[in-house]
Amino acid sequence: MEASRSPCRRPTGEAPVDQPIWKEPPMTPSLNATSRLTLLFTLVASLAACGGGDGSSANDTSQDLGNDTEATVEGDTMSVAARRKRDRKHKPTPSPIPAPTPSPTPVPTPTPTPTPTPVPTPTPTPAPTPSPTPTPTPTPAPGTINLGTGCNSFYSATAALKAGQTNDTIPTLAKPAKGAAFSEPAYQTCEVRLTDHTAEGLATFARQDYSRRQSFNADNTRVLIYSITGHWHVYDANTYQFVKTLSGPAADAEIQWHATNPDLLYYVPTNGVGMQVLELTVSSGSTRVIGNLGARLKARWPSANAAWTKSEGSPSADGRYWCLMVDNSSWGSVGVVTWDRDTDTILGYLDTNGDRPDHVSMSPSGNYCVVSGDSARGTVAYSRDFKSQRKLLAKSEHSDIALDAAGDDIYVSVDYSTNEGDVFMVNLRTGARTVLFPSYVNGTATAFHFSGKAYKKPGWVVISSYGDYGSAGKQWLHRKVMAVQLAANPKIYNLAHHRSYVGDYWAEPQASVSRDFSRVIFNSDWGKSGTDIDAYMIALPPSLVK
């Protein structure tokens, strides 16, 4: 009997889910019988932890993120395996829907409410003498990219990223203060803690949404942050200051930034119920419906109730083409559609006959709708009109869809069913599959998230790893954020150690890259089990990724 395990899935906000909450890839066949039995025992504990709670324990301290000591499976029933993400947590719907925050800086309160309301600062009485002029924030020279306060002057003209499959010690590093740039000790990249959820009055955590979601707006001046109350918040991505709480989007609203207008974003009603796509002007808070699909979907499927990607999808890189799965009021699947934002036209329909996808997404080019699932259909790339299809993987795993250097759509994922647990890519146009690197290294395994959102830097993805286990200890690909080239024998640049203990789903790093590859955002509990989680940013000149 072969031991197996894999990450739990991303939590979603839908009604009760009738699918298994754990999806288990085969463990490397090189494990001996004793190790396999021990892993099976650990899996039982993991399944229990995955069903609820934060998975923490009074003696749950075996993973020391300040050094290379590995929490091995043997003799540790609350090892990394029991601290993997807790799947299918629901994003709560805020009540009431938050109103725009009247002040750019929230005043923390001892007990955060669902809508943290800052106390307005009274207008100061003019002093007899003028106040000293504050020192301006350094700005980049004309023609250079703004990396944010503290990072604009960080890199020298000869700076280079550390490349290769290097198994580096994770240096001990105290949790940094918000807004203070610091150097990642192992890789000399510029990092900043973006949020301080406690001081900013955001209950439990302040985190970026997901690896497959673009956190930064079109010009990298704003970044989206999500909190446990179901509210969405906007921060200044250059000064790291809180800007406002959005009014309108709530919980699983699947927010997508406009591709070129930094003040616009799109979202759907919570969990897609109502079958609309809305546009929000961030500065003014005004909202308008740009796609009302309800009547058209009900004409095809009378029980249609929700249209969404189920938390993990994105439109095409230019925001024009969307792929949406359609559910009934019991969260049974009725179909999948593609929609053209510019013409408000449904381009194709796919009947699913109850075979519910895990999630769907449009490819960056807009030529393919990728439907991911664990039924016999597996993960399939359909043409926009659903008249042709190509199977990409026999099941659904963490993945994303990127552009390669030639501009082709590329599906990037991990295949735990292969002997080496291949991290791989598939060209959606040609069907060519290329192995990037093995994930089963020296009898260990790990989980990944993929971000292919660097559309202006085609040929590269960001991969973050977490939840590793196996008696051989930490390997080169564990507990880090890295840039990986989309090519055979790829270049790999090490960007940071995320230092997240991952005692809870929300603490998964889930790194996401900006369109130009100048910023990578990730989540971390900074070595503390639980949900004390904030967002961190790696800033780097895109020219270093080459």
TrEMBL record:
Residues 1-31, 49-141 are annotated as: Disordered. Residues 82-92 have a biased composition (Basic residues). InterPro entries: SelW_related, WD40/YVTN_repeat-like_dom_sf. Signal peptide: none annotated. Residues 56-70 have a biased composition (Polar residues). Residues 93-141 have a biased composition (Pro residues). PANTHER family: MIGRATION AND INVASION ENHANCER 1, SELENOPROTEIN W. This is Uncharacterized protein. It comes from Sphaerotilus microaerophilus.
